[in-house]
Amino acid sequence: MRELSLHILDLAQNSLTANAKRLDILVSEQKALDRLTITLQDDGKGMSPEFLANVTSPFTTTRTTRKVGLGIPMFKANAELSGGDFDIWSQVGVGTRMTANFVLSSIDRPPLGDMVSTMISLVIANPTFHFHYEYAVDGEAFTFDTEEIMQVLGGVPLDTPEVVSWMMDYLKEGMESLHGGA
Amino acid sequence: MTVAELKELLGARVLNEGVDLSREVGSAYVCDLLSWVMAKGAPGTAWVTVMNHLNVIAVATLLDMSCVIIPENIEVKPETLEKAAEEEIPVLSTGKTAFEIAGLMHSKGLGDPVK
């Protein structure tokens, strides 16, 4: 993928397919450590140890239409290409957590990309799902939490055009205020 | 042109020996970004890439490509070659650059993949 946000968009689909109720997406830039960390954590159905052991192989997939699944393998390969690493943890009935570390300054690290559009696409396609997105730059964080927004709106659907427009501005301003570089 | 004929044209070696080379090559593509290739490749495409991990074989399998061509004598991981043999995807290797390989294929009339 040309941008890391596209990986996030792709991998979020795994959590939705796994019947998760909540997905936490954490993006953290740590300039002192020259590191960009992306963590995705869900409370979906999780994976068996056998499936988990092979999940970074592209020939492991839950798909029934084809035998190849490249979401996790490409994310891992991109992290490793930038000199970083990848780790995944999962437990049946508890959920799945994956963390990819990228070397922030690596020329082979794809840019973070358009996280505003990524989050908006996810919310519009799944307006009742609980997305918790956190973007942190050197310890300072911005949070976007759809359950909090739903509570404030008291029943107005998140895919209402006015709400979408507000969320876009909120995400854009929140992320820009941290002056990250990824 | 078959994969065997392409191998001769490029002066290439087959890294997973024993794989069938009689398949017709329908088109050619050069790119190292796997997700991009997933969107652009087609059945029968000969794909030139410097990438050497297992994901390459997965993309080639997914798109039913005719072969993968590794330029500049880049070493390919054994696990990649094992899977390529299993999936019957020929992996060719040559000392030529991707640019030279593309030039040779283009001169023989191979064109872009058509979805």
Task: Note the main attributes of this structure.
heterodimer; A: 182 residues; alpha+beta; Heat Shock Protein 90; globular; B: 115 residues; five-stranded mixed β-sheet
Structure description:
The complex is a heterodimer of chains A (182) and B (115). Chain A is 36% helix and 26% strand. By secondary structure, chain A is an alpha+beta fold. Chain A has one domain: Heat Shock Protein 90 (2-Layer Sandwich), CATH 3.30.565. In chain A, strands 3-4-2-1-5-6 form a six-stranded mixed β-sheet. In chain A, α1 packs antiparallel against α3, α1 (4-17) runs parallel beside α4 and α4 (115-125) packs antiparallel against α6. Chain A is globular and about 45 Å long. Chain B is an alpha/beta fold and 115 residues long. Chain B has one domain: Udp-n-acetylmuramoylalanyl-d-glutamate--2,6- Diaminopimelate Ligase, Chain: A, domain 1 (3-Layer(aba) Sandwich). Chain B has a five-stranded mixed β-sheet with strand order 1-5-4-3-2, sandwiched between helices. In chain B, α3 (54-62) links the parallel β3 and β4 (67-70). In chain B, α3 runs parallel beside α4. The A-B interface holds A 1-2, 6, 57-59, 66-68, 70, 73-74, 77 and B 33-36, 38, 53-55, 57-59, 61-62, 83.
Please describe the topology of this protein.
The complex is a heterodimer of chains A (182) and B (115).
Chain A: H1 4-17, E1 22-30, E2 35-42, H2 49-53, H3 71-81, E3 85-91, E4 95-103, H4 115-125, E5 130-137, E6 140-145, H5 146-153, H6 161-176
Parallel strand pairs in A: 1-5
Antiparallel strand pairs in A: 1-2, 2-4, 3-4, 5-6
Helix pairs in contact in A: 1-3, 1-4, 4-6
Chain B: H1 3-10, E1 13-14, E2 27-30, H2 34-40, E3 45-48, H3 54-62, E4 67-70, H4 78-86, E5 91-93, H5 98-107
Parallel strand pairs in B: 2-3, 3-4, 4-5
Antiparallel strand pairs in B: 1-5
